[in-house]
Amino acid sequence: MSYSIQNANRFKWSSITGELLSERLSHLNKYIIGNTVLDVGCGGGAYVNFLAEQGLEVIGVDQYQDFLQVASEAQYQGSFVQADAAKLPFEENSFDSAYCFDVLEHVDDRKVLKEISRVTSKRIILTVPQKDEHMEQFGLSFMTYRDPTHLRYYSEDSLRELCLSIKPENIKIFPEGYLSCPWIIEYFIDNDSENIDLGSEQKSEFKKYRELAYKFVIRKLLKRISYKKIFLGLVAVIDLEGFKPIALSKIS
C-alpha cells in the first residue's frame, strides 16, 4: 500500500488529522533543546505548527506533496520543505534539535537517522512502533490494525542498536502509547463479532450477550488478576556527540 491521505486518515496520523497526541506534545515540551527545530516526516504539519506557535523556528520536511498541502490549507505556522528524509537539503548542524515521529519504520532507518544526525547539533527525538511481543505470547496481535506501510517494528534492544549507529553521547529510551487490559479485551471482542456471519436479528442478540460477557470479564475477572502493561510505541531521546548528556533509562 502506498502513502496517501486516505491511508493517513484511516490510521489516524495525528500530524494529518490535527488531533495532537498529548504524549507527543509532552515529549516536545520536555526534550526540545534550542530555538531551531526540524520535523522529519512532518506529514500535515500539525506538530510544526504547535512549536511555531511557541516562538520556535521550525521547518517541517516531508517527501509527499499531498501531506504538505494539508499544512498549506490549514495555514499552519512554520516553514515546510518537500524533500527526501535520506537527502535533507540542509547544511551540517543547521538545527539545535530534530524530531522524527513514526517515520523510521517506513524507510531505511539507519540511512535516515544518519542524515538527521548530520543536520542536527544537539538532540534528536524519535518515536517508533513497538513489537507486540506480549500479545503474541497468547497468539494475539494487533496486525489487523497495523499500518501496512510499516517495514518493521522495534524492541528496546533493536532501537538502542539503531541509535548507537550514529555514535551518540547518550540515549534515553522509554515506552509510550499505554493500552489498558480492558481496552484490549474489548478490541478483540468487537473484532470477533464483526467477523461472525449472522442475520441482523441474530447480530442484535449476539451484541447484547457480547456486552454482558464483556462486563462480566471486566468487572469480575480483571479485578482479580495482575497483568503486564502493554505499550504500542517506543521513544528514543538522543544526545549527540559533544552535547551535555541526559540520564540513561531502561524500560521497567
UniProtKB/TrEMBL annotation:
One of its GO terms (molecular function) is S-adenosylmethionine-dependent methyltransferase activity. It comes from the Bacteria. The keyword Mitochondrion does not apply. The keyword Methyltransferase applies. InterPro entries: Methyltransf_11, SAM-dependent_MTases_sf. GO terms for biological process: methylation. Keywords: Methyltransferase, Transferase. Residues 38-121 form the Methyltransferase type domain. Pfam families: Methyltransf_11 (PF08241). This is Class I SAM-dependent methyltransferase. It comes from Leptothoe spongobia TAU-MAC 1115.
